[in-house]
């Protein structure tokens, strides 16, 4: 609720990444709402705080950082190119889009939308951007902010524009056949590329979280977004205005996408983080029918139901972890035990991971997790069958690691200009940059975990996984205890010798499994 007296003073935030950040008074009004303040209690990096002690950053500061860089970029374009006719409303809307783009994240950020919701609501096909739109509308309505928006010169089209910045083209909003947006005309198409660039992935959202995540994780960030802003320019290319960059900045952009790949490899897809987030997800699934949150009109909602109710969603944060952990409710006993395992570092065991060759990639659309796990367990020996081990004891992750555009080099979607031809955009081929750039821009990572942290069980699973990888012509799995066994002779399951060839070392010494399995590479097509 806002009073009629509106202060026109900017506020300065001291950010650990960007330094002193000056914030427009309307943005301050948005920051001081329950919907934005809620982001203080949602970890940016999900379960990584259990692995990296510095990974305590939250969505709140990332939202402010994205808003700040969005303002830097659009104001730089406005100063350099008056012909673009960027006005105060454009600047403010883009900054609001950056500030509110993550309003829809649930507990532990991407854990909620990529692990919890798909299992709690298998057919929902829900994305956090949908909730961001829901929460933005709720923020404006519940805090009676429309008059405040109007006070600063924003109208109904601007409200639509902000939502389009966050989500993309909106359903039910009239638009022309050749231009999908309503908030701004096609002549200002470049404005939609600032916060969330669907064309090539070069946007201020990434610029902030690359810098912020690297800072908190202690990982070196070679990408310099401030330099990129200095050499940015809007030009018409392929029929539309888009943000282009000086040709000499192509290396800086490759550094940007390499940083993304590094963060995924070293942090986001870290084996221990996978284990922790799997356990948190399963605890939330167990608690979902029990924990109720008061939603609209006081109606109780499950966590999974809160994604459609802004009142309930406003109350849904990382606090559900401690709520379950310290609960005396017997209905939460199993979920509580799982979280206690995390606290005591009794985590799901990482068995190993492998990287299939491109032609052998697992088709996750046709081959289900349960089917693959049963194939792995089919390599148990008769002696192994005495151990209590079921497919439900294993968890498999098949992840595509890429530069953001699957198999494609994202730089091929970026336009550049030259110093002596500043108004002539063009593309730069990879071979024009360096011969040492990646030949491939996507690979698949297969990770296997065991819920039972018992050595005998884990040895059996490790042995089966080793054979399965060999049969499918995948790379030798590493991680868990596999790497150690590859450097020393195996006493029980392998007969590896330091004098044998690499292929011979990889061949496990084992009898044929009692289950009939054809000795051929599995067809994943």
Strand content: 5-15%
The chain-level mean pLDDT equals: 90
Q: Quick one: overall form?
A: globular
Computed CA radius of gyration, to the nearest angstrom: 26 Å
**Termini distance?**
57 Å
Strands, total number: 10
Low-confidence stretches: 1-7, 483-525
SSE pattern, N- to C-terminal? EEHHHHHHHHHHEEHHEEHHHEHEEEHHH
For the largest beta sheet, what order do the strands appear in spatially?
3-4-9
Proportion in helices: 25-40%
Oligomer: single chain
Largest sheet data: 3 strands, mixed
Structural class: alpha+beta
Helical run tally: 19
Describe the protein's architecture and organization.
- With 525 residues, this protein is an alpha+beta fold.
- It is built from 19 helices and ten strands.
- It has helices at 25-31, 34-37, 59-80, 88-100, 110-120, 128-142, 146-151, 156-167, 204-217, 225-230, 250-268, 271-287, 310-314, 319-325, 333-343, 369-377, 455-471, 482-487, 502-506; strands spanning 11-15, 19-23, 232-237, 240-246, 293-294, 300-301, 349-354, 394-402, 416-417, 442-450.
- Strands 3-4-9 form a three-stranded mixed sheet. Strands 7-10-8 form a three-stranded antiparallel sheet, sandwiched between helices. A two-stranded antiparallel sheet has the order 1-2.
- A hairpin with a 3-residue loop joins strand 1 and strand 2.
- Helix 4 crosses helix 8 and helix 12 (271-287) packs antiparallel against helix 15 (333-343).
- The protein is globular.
- The N and C termini lie far apart (57 Å).
């Amino acid at each position: 609720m806002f009073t009629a007296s509106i202060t026109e003073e900017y506020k300065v935030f001291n950010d650990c990444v960007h330094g002193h950040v000056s914030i427009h008074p309307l943005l301050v009004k948005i920051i001081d709402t329950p919907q934005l303040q809620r982001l203080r209690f949602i970890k940016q990096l999900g379960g990584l705080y259990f692995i990296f002690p510095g990974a305590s950053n939250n969505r709140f500061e990332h939202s402010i950082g994205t808003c700040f860089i969005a303002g830097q970029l659009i104001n730089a374009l406005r100063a350099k190119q008056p012909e673009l006719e960027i006005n105060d409303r454009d600047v403010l809307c883009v900054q609001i889009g950056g500030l509110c783009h993550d309003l829809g994240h649930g507990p532990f950020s991407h854990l909620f939308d990529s692990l919890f919701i798909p299992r709690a609501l298998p057919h929902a096909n829900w994305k956090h951007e949908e909730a961001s739109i829901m929460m933005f509308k709720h923020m404006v309505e519940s805090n009676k902010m429309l008059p405040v928006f109007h006070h600063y010169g924003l109208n109904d089209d601007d409200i639509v524009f902000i939502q389009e910045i966050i989500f993309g083209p909106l359903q039910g909003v009239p638009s022309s056949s050749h231009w999908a947006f309503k908030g701004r005309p096609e002549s200002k198409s470049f404005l939609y590329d600032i916060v969330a660039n669907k064309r090539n992935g070069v946007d201020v959202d990434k610029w902030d979280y690359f810098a912020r995540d690297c800072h908190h994780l202690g990982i070196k960030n070679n990408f310099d977004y401030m330099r990129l802003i200095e050499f940015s320019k809007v030009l018409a290319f392929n029929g539309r205005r888009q943000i282009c960059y000086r040709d000499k900045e192509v290396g800086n952009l490759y550094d940007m996408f390499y940083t993304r790949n590094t963060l995924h490899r070293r942090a986001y897809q870290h084996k221990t983080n996978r284990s922790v987030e799997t356990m948190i997800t399963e605890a939330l699934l167990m608690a979902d029918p029990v924990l109720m949150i008061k939603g609209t009109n006081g109606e109780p909602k499950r966590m999974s139901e809160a994604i459609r109710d802004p009142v309930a969603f406003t109350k849904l944060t990382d606090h559900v972890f401690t709520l379950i952990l310290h609960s005396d409710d017997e209905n939460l006993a199993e979920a509580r035990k799982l979280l206690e395992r995390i606290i005591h570092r009794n985590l799901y065991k990482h068995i190993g991971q492998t990287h299939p060759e491109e032609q052998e990639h697992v088709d996750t659309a046709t081959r289900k997790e349960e089917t693959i796990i049963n194939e792995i367990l089919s390599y148990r020996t008769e002696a192994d069958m005495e151990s209590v081990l079921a497919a439900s004891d294993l968890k498999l992750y098949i992840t595509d690691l890429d530069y953001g555009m699957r198999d494609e080099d994202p730089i091929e979607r970026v336009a550049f200009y030259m110093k002596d031809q500043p108004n002539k955009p063009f593309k730069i081929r990879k071979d024009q940059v360096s011969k040492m750039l990646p030949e491939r821009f996507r690979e698949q990572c297969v990770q296997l975990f065991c819920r039972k942290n018992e050595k005998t069980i884990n040895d059996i699973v490790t042995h089966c996984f080793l054979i399965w990888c060999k049969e499918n012509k995948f790379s030798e799995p590493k991680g868990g205890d596999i790497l150690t066994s590859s450097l020393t002779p195996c006493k029980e399951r392998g007969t590896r010798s330091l004098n044998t060839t690499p292929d011979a070392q990889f061949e496990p010494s084992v009898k044929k499994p009692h289950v009939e399995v054809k000795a051929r590479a599995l067809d994943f097509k």
